[in-house]
Amino acid sequence: MCLAVPGKIVSIEDSDPLFRSGKVDFAGIVKQVSLACVPEAKSGDYILVHAGFAISIIDEAQASEVFQFLQKMDEAQDHHKADVQK
Amino acid sequence: MKYIDEYRDADPVQRIAQAIRRSVQNPWNIMEVCGGQTHSIVRFALDTLLPSEITLVHGPGCPVCVTPVECIEKAIEIASVQEVIFCSFGDMLRVPGISNDLLSVKASGGDVRMVYSPLDALRIAAENPGREVVFFAVGFETTAPANAMAVLQAHRQGIGNFTLLVSHVLVPPAMEAILSAEENTVQGFLAAGHVCTVMGYEEYEPIARKHRVPVVVTGFEPLDILQGIHMCVRQLEEGRFEVENQYTRSVRREGNPHARNAIEEVFRIVDRKWRGFGAIPRSGLGLREKYSSYDAEDRFGVARLEAEEDSECISGSILQGTRKPHACPAFGTRCTPEHPLGATMVSSEGTCAAYYRYRRA
Fold it and tell me: Do B145 and A58 lie within an 8 Å CB cutoff?
């Protein structure tokens, strides 16, 4: 039930902060989503949506962290292999 | 879909599984707290990529599964009232109460509707001023801001025919209960990424210190879960017990302050009964006095209703991680998703349903 789905904000209807909402694109399906919990969100941002509410803005830089970790790990492995071969 | 597909790519998944195999030296039991993570693990067969030293223990993080039977009975009683439109997330409709479920109330003429958000229920209330609209507000911290915001919006708009049947539960007290149990075997946790997106992870730091268990806040995609396991295994092997954050693309240490403010405004911490655990002190949320007029239990006079479950279902042990579905003689025979004996077979995030669906056991 704690499922949250990533989507991209297409447009925002600015109103009272409690009722602020926007159209969000989930891989082609567009739905109206409350943005009341992410007042700093802007059009083009990717957000995580749970039960009709955005609960966070996805941090693009942090999103690639796991791939950088894997790359560093592979480089360390290569060094290790090279050391063993010497 | 961006932020999903790349975390399911086989090549990085295999590489991180290799990293886990290189790191592990000793046997470890790691519990994934959230039912969504259990579902991913079974669906993508992630446990089969792990070395034999690692045992994944499935946790209690499925709100449908831990909602006590008396709350289901309250829902059934309210939904049976003539002028009520009873709205709920779909999963709750098939959870068995003592003698029937919400779907049977609908079948016998009750107005029971499946909704996707509490705001859908609020809209139905605005459109039907002559009816009483009740939303079944179950869930963990992830769902609490949505329910709090629905109450705040109803309050602002003066919508008086909208109430919540609240059965909100909190993750940290359940982790405490698991770790304090005599039969506990859990040595490390993958904490629930979306609960922590809302609440942050400061409240897990005293738990990690007190029980000397690593806690890794973890996401839901295959790569997230395996990286979370890798971080947890490294801590266990190095004798560390810290709170680390794998799910950095969504989780900040302090959580989402706007969501937390909404929860704080509308809800207070209360004792709650959990299916499978019994009563856990200070483990749930209830409406504050200021918003008590939105409490369906008061409006429909069901607050004192009590019920005990009586079934051969072992979902209590399943939820505490002490037994797995194949230990149950009814699994897959007398208990199936079509005819569930207990809640862990109902919700798609329930451990039994996940095992059944993906033909494990």
Answer: no
